Amino acid sequence: MKFLSPKLKSKLAELWSKLEPYKDVLIFVVALFVSNWIWKLCIHGDEDNIAVTLFCWDITPFFQYLSEMTASAVYWVVSLFRDTVYQVDAITLRFPTGGGSKIVWSCTPVKQSFIWLCILLATIGDWKSKVWFIPFGWICIFLFNILRISAITMFMEFHPDWFEILHTYIFKYLFYGVMFLLWVWYVEKLRTIKPQST
Asked: Does residue 134 lie in a domain region?
């Protein structure tokens, strides 16, 4: 920063001092957007043909397995509340009304798990707490994903026209809200930061 004028250095230092209390939130937001961008850059999928690639490698079988596992879990949850649900195939649930859900590769919580990993790795804190809290977050993400798809599926029995608003808007942002609350819990209650030596 030797090339900066003293006036500009002073302004940058003043700006940083104002942003210092929001440092953790800024790290969360940047990590969220960067990891989302990396995911979109690296992972490509076709939901109609259920083909998924990581760069040029076919990782479809991995996502197919997760889709089937997710569909089975959702079927079990929905069956607790609706005895009218039936499984058409490994990834499709239907109701006699015609509504239902197809659990495709993007319905698995892999993307959110990757984003969670990136956020926790970018967050300032000790490794001892991160080592167990990252997998704990993955479990919470997996369980919330099952509940999210189950709720959407149950709505589809009588309100199939609600799919877009439920899937694309309400539950998508609820998902990120849950991740944010988990992160806040980590930052506020669980992490320890080593004091900087002077």
From this structure: yes
Q: Tell me the C-alpha distance between 157 and 152, whole Å.
A: 9
Cβ–Cβ < 8 Å for 143, 135: no
Structural domain containing residue 70: 22-190
Residue 55 neighbours by CB under 8 Å, 6+ apart:
42
**Domain membership flag for residue 103:** yes
> What is the tens place of the pLDDT at every residue in 16-38?
777 777 889 999 999 999 999 99
User: Helix or strand or coil: residue 1?
Assistant: coil
Following DSSP, what letter does each residue of 42-95 receive, concatenated? HEEEETTTTEEEETTEE-HHHHHHHHHHHHHHHHHHHHHH-TT-EEEETTEEE-
Element (H, E) at 117: helix 110-122
The predicted model scores a pTM of: 0.86
Q: Say how many domains are in the chain.
A: 1
Q: Is 1 among the domain residues?
A: no
